[in-house]
Design brief:
Strand order of the largest sheet: 1-2-5
Structural class: alpha+beta
Shape: globular
Number of strands: 5
Length: about 160
Amino acid sequence: MNSARDRLVVDWLSDGGFRVGELCGLHLCDLHLREGAGCGECRAPHVHVCHREALPNRARAKTKRPWELTDGTIRGGLIKRVSPAMIHAYFDYLTGEYPRGASHGMLLVQQHGPDRGLPWAPEGVRKMIARAAARAGLGKLRPTPSVIPSRPRSSMPRTATSW
C-alpha cells in the first residue's frame, strides 16, 4: 500500500467487514472510536453505517436502518465494531494525509489529480485494490468481503446489535 489512506481502506475492509460503498460513505461524525461514545448505543469503539442519498462521491450503504444526527452525534444505522488496528490506521491517515481544509466531513478523500481533497468514490477504492492485487501477483481481484478475508481476532461480534 502506498499511503496511510490505502492502508486504512484495507484494514477497515478486512477487520471491519465493510462493503466498499459503506466505507466510502462514512462521515467523520459516524465514527465513535473511543469507549463510552456519546451515542450511548455501544460501550466499545464503533462506527455507524448510515444510508445517505445523493453523496458527492455517489457512495451508498445498502443497509437502510433508521438513523439520526442529534446535537452532532449519530445514533442508529448499522453499528459495526472497530478493532485497535482500525483505530491506529485511522489516526495515521487523519494526522498524516487528511486535508486540513476539507469541509465535506467525509472520511475518505481523493489524494491526487484535479479532484484532490474531494470525497473518494467507490470506483477509486476498487481501482486501488486492483492495482495492489496486480503488484502482489494476485491477478484480477474485486474487493468483496469474501475476497478480502477477515483477520483472526477476538470473539468481539461484528455488529453491536448482539452486545
